[in-house]
Amino acid sequence: MAGRKRVTHRDVANLAGVSNAVVSYVMNNGPRPTSPEVRERVLRAIAELDYHPSALARSLSAQRTLTIGYIASDYYPMLVFSSPYSSGILTGLVTETKAQGYYLMVYPIGVDEDLSQLQVLLRSGRLDGVVVRLVQESPVTDPLLELIASVGIPCICIEQSGHPRFNFCALTFDDLGGAYKATAYLIERGHQRIAHLQGDLRYASARLRRDGFRQALSDAGLPYDEALILGSTWETKDAVEATRQLLTLDTPPTAIFAANDNFAFSAIETLQKHGLHVPEDMAVIGFDDIPLAKEMTPALTSVRIPLLELGQRAASMVLGLIDATNATECHSEALPLELIHRDTA
Question: CATH number for the 176-304 domain, one of 3.40.225.10, 3.40.50.2300, 1.20.140.10, 3.40.640.10?
């Protein structure tokens, strides 16, 4: 059976007895007015023919593709599709772009990956703007941002800022301050021997969370004990091994500050397997506050990154740049982090 022939703009005009331009005026509410009688004829023809305008034709007319790119630059880029952390950002991006009539293209890319394929995409004209997740700082991020700048496409950086010479907006949060807040809370609760399960130090977030932990200890006059700082990757198995190692110390810690929630979950499970109770025997605080944190037993105390808001705000910012007629400068924002008090600390 042959497929149904696509109804065109001209078919509507012929049935309504008007020009192609008048059909456009009715569908777009301008730029020229039409009489109520003509408008009714055009709308009746559209309904009768079940006409749906070509997205390609409309994008060519508006010189927009209505598509935003999300470039997820990471050492493990494919985690963008499976990580609870990334899913929060993606949900925010999709929610906002969809509400504004835009589509989202997700493009994972490794930090050290060749940029030639991305260059083809950016120069193809398929994207109206991009949101770029950066896990590193300049100069590591310079080649990627240099490419985006050379295309002249609106860009928002999230998590980390780019070098100021690119003049790209940034939406960030205070990793160091969040870690400081979590550690200071443990100190206020009377803990003096606090361990830190750190992440992959190639990531700026891991380094900043370690530094915030260290600063809180220093400000409280507590020593920074290297034996209590463990971890070198974001693998949860490393958090399990690190927790086991902490328990073998002559003087184990009484609290753990984990660089992310998955580390905290692994630490709690390991402690429970060793017959310890959280927080009675060992307090634990995580970082990110992914949805599972409040569903765990006991529910996890964690530093909340507003991931949904991060995605929504980034999408709103890049759409604002697309709509701006003379946006030459961009401002940056830092989202506040909050320590969510639950049952583990």
Answer: 3.40.50.2300
